[in-house]
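Appendix B, Record 12. Input sequence as logged:
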Amino acid sequence: MTRKLFAAGLLFTVLAAAPACKKDDMVKETMTEIDGLADEIVSTVKNADDKKQGVAEAQKLLDAKKEALGGQMDEVGQLRGFQVSEEVAAELTTNVAQSALEVESLKLNLMTETMKDKELDAALDKLTGDFATMVKP
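Logged structural output:
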């Protein structure tokens, strides 16, 4: 009887872990997409000769992906501890914070320009705010 209980417990553990692997992969894919978008936003703004135009282009990039990525982040936020490994959950927290900081750093990089141009300042605030809102798990 004890062997049967042990075997059943072991089988349950293996079966319970299987869905977590699928959720880990989904979370990792979402992190990769967020990283890529953050990199794309930052490089678009930094490489633009006209920073206001660069911010506008970056906002278009974000707007094009915001609904899909926002939905993925909502799904990630609804996952429970047993659906995602502790390692991936920790990676997610770090990844999201780094990506948000990367986009937020544009404010520091463009501080001189935004002090002179209130439209640029407002557009940059919208861009960074929209990104931060989207990546909240």
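The radius of gyration is 20 Å.
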